[in-house]
Amino acid sequence: MQLNLPRETARRERDYGARVAAVLTFGLLAWPAAAHTGSASGGFAGGFAHPLFGVDHMVAMVAVGLWGAFLGAPAIWLLPVVFPLVMAAGGALAILGLPLPGVEIGIALSAVVLGMMVALAAHPPLWIAAILVGAFAVFHGHAHGSELPPGADVVAFSIGFVLATGLLHLTGIALGMVARWPAGRFAVRAAGGAIALTGVAFLRGME
Amino acid sequence: MSAFLAGLLTPLTTPAHALALVAFGLCAGRQRATSWSVGAFFAGLSCGLAAIGLAVRPLFALDVLLGCTLVNGGIAALAWRLPAVLALLLGASTGLALGLDSPPQAISLAAARMTLIGTAAAVISALVLVVLAAGLLRRTGAAIAIRVLGSWCAASAMLVLAVRFSRGLPY
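Structure tokens for the assembled complex are given below, as produced in the milestone run.
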């Protein structure tokens, strides 16, 4: 079937597809770290693999990227800028021994809520989205901070950990960018629903 | 391995130094007078390395360096432009801390000097590359990448500082 698109439109479509591919490529750089199986030891590889060991963490990170892609500019990039900082603050709380009640529930809820936001294609004001994501980021960070392996090469571990988290966000953004097309929009919303169900499963598993 | 080569590799293979260079490069590339900011960094670095050469080594250098990394990364993430004085001060502090945290592992004085020279060469080269890369990202409309990378640098530094404080500072 010949589309007969004007040349300029076709070029823009190709450029958009190339950008999606580039973001996805960089985002999927996170996945090879899964080859480093086993416990999360110290060092860069251990830090990089750490966010990938928890499905609840992973789906929430991807959901942040998906939702950001749905919300569009500036949220699409604001969330990946703010999330690591707030997450690190949560991690610092845990490292310094400050307790945070209901961390695991908060993490499971983050998958439910963020997945629902994507599934429903919710477009709240930016400040509400930022507060919601920020609140969940604290829970995730606190959990990761509690799991920091003793004797780890802290700097390398932290760099690997933050990098993997950021790349998961980029993966979510890249996947969310296919929402530009009708079929892609449906697929992304379905993915959000799946993420929400995953969160529900984790919540039920805690009962 | 020659002393010069050892010094050349040190800032590139020390995660805290590499992180600091990236964070400062991203921040400096955003300031009004990038060259002055970088110049202040080099001045601080020279003073730090000279102090090391005189066997001065404050134990808190790494913590100051991580603090500077946190600030530099945060400023890059927020895309702030500092007043010139603050930018110079931040550059000088970062360079000084980096220099003071680069003690050479050498047996002889001559080898130590060559190591310090190698360290300075590596730091200068790496920083110029980062600043140029940041400029390229801005010119090609990918300035958001600078903010994202700055955020990552600040987040990493925050975690490391928390760990160091929780484990008790060695001084």
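The mean pLDDT of chain A is 80. Residues 182-205 of chain A form the longest helix (24 residues). Further analysis is deferred to the final report.
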